[in-house]
Fold this sequence. Notes:
The structure holds 2 protein chains of 2 kinds. Chain A is of the alpha/beta class. In chain A, 40% of the residues lie in helices and 14% in strands. In chain A, helix 6 (197-206) links the parallel strand 7 (190-193) and strand 8 (209-213). The model of chain A has no long low-confidence stretch (mean pLDDT 95). Chain B is α/β, with parallel strands linked by helices. Chain B has a 9-stranded mixed beta sheet, with helices on both faces. Chain B has 8 helices and 9 strands. Chain B starts with a strand and ends in a 6-residue tail after the last helix. The interface between A and B is medium-sized, with 21 and 20 residues.
Amino acid sequence: MRIYQFTEQPYPDAWNDHEGSLRVNLPNRKLDPKIAADLYHRYYDEWLLADELGLDIMLNEHHQTATCMSSTVIVGLSVLARQTKRARLLVLGYPIGHRPDPLRVAEELSTIDVISRGRLDMGFIKGVPYEFPASNQNPVGVMDRFWEAHDFILKAMTSHDAPFNWEGEFFHYRHVNIWPRPYQQPHPPIWTTTGNRANARVLGERGYVMATLGSGYNTRPLYDAYREGYMAHGRPAPGPDRFAYLGLVAVAHNEDEARRRGELVAGYLRSGSIVHLPFRNPPGFLSVEDHARMLKGQTPPRTLTRDGRVVDMRSGSVQDLIDAGILFCGTPDQVYKQLVEFCVYCGGMGNLLMMGHAGFMSHADTIDNLNLVAGEVMPRLKDWKQPVAQTAAA
Amino acid sequence: MTAVVDAPPCSLTVNGLRIETIVLGDGRPILFLHPGIGIEPEAPVLERLARGGRVIAPSHPGFGRSELAASMTAIDDLAYFYLDLVEALDLSDVVLVGVSLGGWIAASIAVKSTERLSRLVLANPVGIKVGDRETRDIVDIWSITDTEFATLAYCEPRSGERDYQAMPDADVLAAARNREATARFAWSPYMHDPKLKGRLHRIRIPTLLLWGAHDRILSEPYGRAYCAAIPGARFELIARAGHFPHVEQPDEFARRVLAFAGDASRT
């Protein structure tokens, strides 16, 4: 099991004064650059600690939002590629369907991979609904654009003998020949996210690392769809390293303290709905069938507990979130058991994307959380043998 | 070019693309191009227009129950599609009527060829850029709520209410397709083609700009600027109507269109 420390690099003061929308249209005068500077340095310090402790590192980006001050993941990767020594550097993700210029993406990521001496994990994502008003990229057809960008980036990273030509539906170049080429051969590992079975199967066919977020005890069907796709080409069942799960983690020496931290980390989920309503569902983001179901008021619950109880991620209690496999919270022993139970349910899950900091959680709390995870939870998980599910769950 | 016309409820197949089409009445062809919210067979305006000719009201490719070709990504693609449709049906002396997004398509058709057209009616059309680069001419319909949209788009906001719970599933799906298709063609540049205004001078057939006076998605100066860019175009207001005058004042809308179509002094 690998554990990636992740924070969205929030600007928590904004929670006190947002007039109903933390994203897209919250005026940036509410950000004090001096406070932001302190926060960035603090978050990088916490990642440097993660590197020292044997954890890996995950970064992301969002735009025009107080929930995440990382507006281009390349900045964070650039800092950490040079300053860290050993951690894998996972970007999850890079919204390549939004980017005007995938050549630039290929150049940036190859450079990061070289500077870090081959520590980059390259996660490509569609992006959340609120990204579209910010980038002005058309949500209709964004996945077609995504896949063309993906194809182009891989070709740019793996072509070494002569410039090539690209005249696609979305992107046009005549002399593609990136310098530097990536450190890892043929290219850094590809990761992505999904929330639906059809896409999970496609990712399985490609063999990419598939991450899910907020799927809790509703994750197994997605993993099984991936397994079907993976095994469709005659390969043996995919190992746990093909699966990643973003979980909130709050560990402390005693349960009361852990639950206090759990409440702080859960602030991330509670902020999810604080966004101007029309930005939550831009046209074309959902399929027309799913949008029609939404108009009819038929929205299937995404998050379930182990025993099938529906949990609202945005309003559930700490206990609800623990029961749903959204939050792993307690003493090191409790968290170890929660994670093992979850991995067994998944049929193997080898990459925990650990939201070990969120919202108002203090530096001291975060440091303690990281130390406990790295010192008391991770060693036991490394010794524990993951299952490798061969088929769908019964 | 050929077209296959099925029995009602009609569908037309043009260029291999099957689109649902409402056909009503007889006589001179009136091609009605709907706005982004689509068109329903029972829309009163169609029956009123059919008193003066043969109304042909297709759902644009990707809208309603019409098929979409993956290569169609711009209003120009729809304009060329309708030029093909008019040829395939061998229509001539056509009165071309478009509302809002349909007006944009109609203008985009007319700058390419008016060979088979005799009158053009643009009702509260989008499609051109009038103000400076920091002035949004057209309200961003994807950054407001449905309630706000109804308030801005209609003289009487209740005209815009939709009860999706009570609607048949197929109609809700059509509404979802209308929303997505509008974004496909109009997301960016937002609701306009930067080239169109400079081409409007090519429209040399009698043109009427009909304007729902209470439109707050577009401003009246926007409509007047549109009108001024088309040689000899006439501007007329429709009272007690907003962005969709054919919905709120179907009688008056049809009366104005048919009066303009029959006005021989304009030819």
